[in-house]
Amino acid sequence: MTAAAVTSPDAVAPAVTTVELPDSPGLLGLLPSAGALSWVRRGEGLVGWGEADRLEVSGPGALAEAAAWWADRSAALDVDDTVRVPGSGPVVFASIAFDPAAGTSVFVVPEVVVGRRDGVTWLTAAGDADPRDLLAGDPTPLPPAPTRLRYADGALDPASWCGAVAGAVRRIGDGDLAKVVLARDLLVTADVPLDTRRLLARLAARFPDCWTFAVDGLLGATPELLLRRTGRQLSARVLAGTAPRGAGADDERLAAGLLASAKDLSEHRLAVDSLVRALDPFCTALSVPDGPSLLTLPNVRHLASDVTGTQRRSGPGGRAGLLDLVDAVHPTAAVCGTPPELANALISELEDMDRGRYAGPVGWLDARGDGEFGLALRCAQLDEQDPRTARLFAGCGIVAGSVPAAELAETQSKFAAFQAALES
Ligand SMILES: C=C(O[C@H]1C=CC=C(C(=O)O)[C@@H]1O)C(=O)O
């Protein structure tokens, strides 16, 4: 399949201005009801709205095409940026398909971006308007919260999904592969339209340690950082291996059990190894912890490894940009498996659904090449046609020894992240 792009070249604004803001409005509170763009953690990050430019792309070479598009577009802008930190000046938000060759990846350049980093807040505006005039906020009142939510099975009912997990465990036992990540979807219909602003605010309040993201109707709070690039410094937070939360002493027992679980440790190791293998050729140095630590969230606990590296001045294909690096590392074994080709084929065979942009890279990129991409997990795709409905996703790493009922329970704990935002 060849790459297909839908662009609106005439919409590119010639001027982009960034100014520092004297006060610190809550970022998510600035978002309008439609077209919200977000990448926020602990009150810092970026929000955006309006559309100065857009690229939709799929096919082999999709990310290389997107990188060339952003390089062209950002180079053509007349930029006045007095803040000059990662995320100031021109920015593009991106949500990349799990399989960029088959699915559609979306890149949106907002008309307005408000960012905060280390306590400094700025506003970037495309066009000639005075940036300060663009902060009026959305006068549309929040609609009432849903009072009724109806859930329905997605592609597979729970019993069929457990059958798929059992099938994967058999294939792993046959020696075909070491790990595969299997996901399922859940459909929700509310009695009123779902409001992005309310959902993002609730996700951010409940999951301050996660990145609350929204791009083109895909929103969630992800705990996993695929890759951050600041100058030549690279960092990632690899997650794989999960335990449920318990109460009191039971919670401590579950945490200790996760750190000692051979099954979860091997699942985690495969995810770390896949990132390191892909990143190593691009780096002069990579630092990988000896073993994982625990990341504790309200709904689950994960094994986590923070990996850091320094990018080579020149490497494979010259000086790689962030999208080249994302292309090289995705999909890691946190969302696909080992070896990736066999795992990908098994995912297509067993899941019976199109992942779309779930488990794909999501984040932002600026004109200097700095940016952050997480993996789109603990998320839902809002339905464009019917704003009362959404599709939630959750997946689990399957290795030798995985028990289908326990994996099903793990997906339920992961769904609970978005369900809490819908239900509270
Ligand atoms: C694929 C998902 O989680 C991944 C990230 C953290 C832990 C995982 C696990 O323990 O299976 C998964 O690899 C998901 O949340 O949908």
From TrEMBL:
EC number(s) per entry = 5.4.4.2
Q: Which reaction does it catalyse?
A: chorismate = isochorismate
Pfam families for this protein: Chorismate_bind
Transmembrane feature ranges:
none
Describe the location of the Chorismate-utilising enzyme C-terminal domain by residue ranges. Answer: 159-414
> By its UniProt entry, which Gene3D superfamilies does this protein fall under?
Anthranilate synthase
Any one GO molecular-function label of the UniProt entry: isochorismate synthase activity
Q: Which InterPro entries match?
A: ADC_synthase, Chorismate_C, IsoChor_synthase
- Give the record's keywords alphabetically: Isomerase
Q: What class of enzyme is it?
A: isomerase
Family designation: Belongs to the isochorismate synthase family.
NCBIfam families recorded for this chain? isochor_syn (TIGR00543)
Protein name listed in UniProt: isochorismate synthase
Native source organism of the sequence: Geodermatophilus obscurus
